[in-house]
Amino acid sequence: MTARPSYDKLIFELSSPGRFAYSLPASDVPVSDVATLLPAEFVRPAAPELPEVSEVDVVRHYSRLSQLNYGVDTHFYPLGSCTMKYNPKVNEDMARLPGFARLHPLTPEAGSQGALALMHELARDLGEIAGMDHVSLQPAAGAQGELAGVLMIRAYHLSRGERRHTVLIPDSAHGTNPASVALAGFSVVQLRSDDHGEVDLADLDRHLDEDVAAFMITQPNTLGLFESKIHQITETCHARGVQVYMDGANFNAILGLTRPGDLGFDVCHFNLHKTFTTPHGGGGPGSGPVGVKAHLAPFLPVPVVVQDEDGGFALDWNRPQSIGKLQAFWGNFGMLVRAYTYIRTMGPGGLRAVAENAVLNANYVLKRLDGDYDRSAPGPCMHECVLSARRQKRLGVSAMDIAKRLLDLGFYAPTTYFPLIIEEALMIEPTETESKETLDAFCDAMIQIAREAETNPALAQEAPVTTPVRRLDQTLAARQPVLRWTPQVK
Amino acid sequence: MAHVPADLKYTKEHEWAKIEGGQARIGITAFAQEQLGDVVFVELPKVGARVTAAKTFGVVESVKAVSDLFAPLSGEIVEVNGELPKKPETVNTDPYGQGWMIVVKLSNPAEADGLMSAEAYQQLIAAASH
Fold it and tell me: How many domains does the structure of chain A reveal?
């Protein structure tokens, strides 16, 4: 890693009384006393302590902070379950086209035909990719897509006069699943995984009754395993009137290889910021379109982009059974442009190659690390592999220590302690965009850490030592968070 | 190996119950807090709420994960440890003492027969940490 100059200042700490960036001209209008303009309760008793800094202070401060950024444009980012793939720059060019970037969301339909056409085509493409009949682009991220999907399932059951109160979720699920379900007003019942890390069919069967509205699963699941009995699962659920929801977090593994709709799912969401190369993490915002089979279409969020007989596009608000509007305007439109660009530049063959290479890369990592770490399940994985550091833990080196040591060796850490059902879990998702050289360098580092755990555990226990800050006290940060600078802290 | 007091009853979800008269004091085990890591937040029900055996009654959040708390026994909550929201670390430092969570007035004391003995729980965690 390149040595970086250490920099840990707040802009407030650069402040020097009387320093400023600009000299403003004298006011040419009469100055009013703010106390006469605003009610007393809205006037602060003292001036805010804004930093007093010069222009060069500001520019250097933020330039230095930006040099501490760590992202997929600078480094490998194997964060499991997050699909931190490289985002092609052509996406950015397209999103910045003035016709898209400068379009006001409330422009009348006649003046926004291009944008509406893009939304219509993207929804159709995503529907084709997932085997779903209709897609709403409105949800702002995966969890909102889940909420939309579960609300549509609720509306569907109610429209048939059925009151069902429970949603089943496996114990390997992402935390957003039970959260979305609870937000939609359902009770959550957790199902256990079988010895191979897949849905336990007998346990599922035991829990399916007339109170169950839906079964929500991730395919492939969070252990990176394809649920091999998926047809049996969806058929068993449908026989009891239960809808089946697919969390699309791991779509990267099956893109172009199989389709949720063909597997029997009624609803699935997409994470455009994972699978379809729109920015992720702090760079977002996210986008979580949701796809449904025809029987759920009446309940889609409004408005829906429709095409009339003349080929023109319009926003359809007249959908009386809709669950309503979910999001300001029409969703995160800039992300839709990026995802559309990605799908068009990749084409069907390219998208299929994405899944094939993502699976190949994950299995390469699994195979190389197999001897030094314990695997979570027998057999090959899909797009990510889950290892356990239980062997290292017995030597005093936890999954957390391994993650911190990786930072010293120049890599971002994998996801740790998830899925919850794996002790000392290390969840590695390399994605298709990494070369063999990068994967080898990462695996070499992982193997080095496993060997160090045997000979010199302190190296991991005291890591990181090369980062701008050492190990942070995450317990204190969670128990007594300091969320903003205050003058007293100075 | 985590401490397992002989005079308590246990669940397979790692809660303990100390049964005294018609009431039970409830918390999570030393093994549970070890597995969770540093506890940062505890959410408990209010006095007067009813809990049902094997159903959730609260949530414990650590630096690693958020976990449901399962009631070992059914009944009405007569006491809640009001210190825990302010000092969640007590669950780590004294899980069987100051780290207790709720006291339940039992509606069906016979349910206690379905809980694990200290010996059985000892075997469960020995297998889990294998």
Answer: 3
